[in-house]
Amino acid sequence: MKIAIHSRAGSFSVRWIEYCKEKKINYKLVNCYETDIVEQLSDCDGLMWHWGHIDNKAVLFARQLTYSLEFSGIKVFPDSKTAWHYDDKVGQKYLLEAIGAPLVSSYVFYDKKQARMWAKKTSYPKVFKLRVGAGSANVRLVKNRYTAYRLINRAFGKGFPVLNRATFLKDRVHQFQKEKNLKNFSELLKGCYRFMIPKHYERMRVKEKGYVYFQDFIPGNDFDIRLFVIGNRAFGLKRLVRKNDFRASGSGSFLFEREEIPPECVKMAFTWAKKIKAQSIAFDFIYNRDNMMIIEISYSFPWCETYDKYPGYWDENLNWYEGKVIPERFMIEDFVKQLQ
Q1: Cys-Cys link to 225, which of 40, 75, 214, 285 (CB 3.0-4.6 A)?
Q2: Which numeric CATH code is attached to 89-94+103-216?
Q3: In whole angstroms, how far apart are CA 280 and each of 30, 128, 235?
Q4: What does pTM read for this prediction?
C-alpha cells in the first residue's frame, strides 16, 4: 500500500505526513498541479489532497481529477461524494433538499424577472449569499424588497467579486477591537492592504453573476453549532454571533465545551453524514424555534491552533471519548483502512 499526498504548508497534509512517518506508512509526495499527475500516481493506491476554495487553480480541476482517478480505481480524499458540493451553496441546496435534510428554506433564481417577482411577494428579512465564499464574507441581511431588487439587478448585471473586501476589512477591525494584540493588529494592516489591492485569486476568478440566492432569516439565534463528522466520530463547537450582527461564521468567538453541543444535533449530524456518504463533513446548525436546521455544509475547515481545542468526540451511539481531537489523523486513519 502506498499513499500519495499533495503537500502544502498550512493544510491538513502537514499532519497526514506526520502520521505516515509515525506509523511507518509508505507514502510519496506528489504535485497535483503538474501535468503528469496521473503518471505520478501510477504506483499509488490513493491520493490525499486538501484543496481549498480560495485556490483558483484547484477550483478549476480538483473535482475533475478526483472523478478521473476514482474511475481508474484510485481512492481519493476528499472523494467525489465528499467534495463535489464544496464551496457551492447552490449545489448544497439541491443536495440537502434531495435527501430530505432540514435545510433552512433557500431560493435560487436564474432569471432576473422571476427573481424580482419573488422579491416583490416574499416576506423580509432574507439572507443574501453568493454561491461561493466562507466566513460570512459574501453574506448580507436583506431587510426589504428594494435592497433585494438592487442585489438582483447586480447579480444579473455586473456581478459580484468572489471576495467582499469591505466585509473582510470589517472582520479584521472586529477582531482587533475584541482583542487588541500584535497578531490582530498585523491582520488589520493586512486587511487594509487587501482592501486596496486584491489578492491574486480574486483577479483570476470571474465575477459571480447570472443567478441570485437567498435563504430565510431565522431570528433569535445568538450562536450557531458547527459539527464535524469524520467516519464514526463527531465533534464540534458553538460559534457566537458578532456584536450588532446576525452572523456567527467568521466571528472568531468559540465555545468548545461538550455541554455546549445539544445531543440531538450530534444525532442529526451522523444521520445526514451517512446519507451524503461523506468521508469528512461539517454541518452548520441553527435553531428554528425548537428545531435544528442546516445552513450550510463543507468538507474542509480552517487549519489553525484555534481548532485544536476540542475536548473529545462522540461515536454514533453518542458515547463520549475524552481527549485531544486531531481531525487530520481521523481522516488518514479512515483512509488507510479504506485502502487495506
Answers
A1: 285
A2: 3.30.1490.20
A3: 22, 27, 12
A4: 0.87
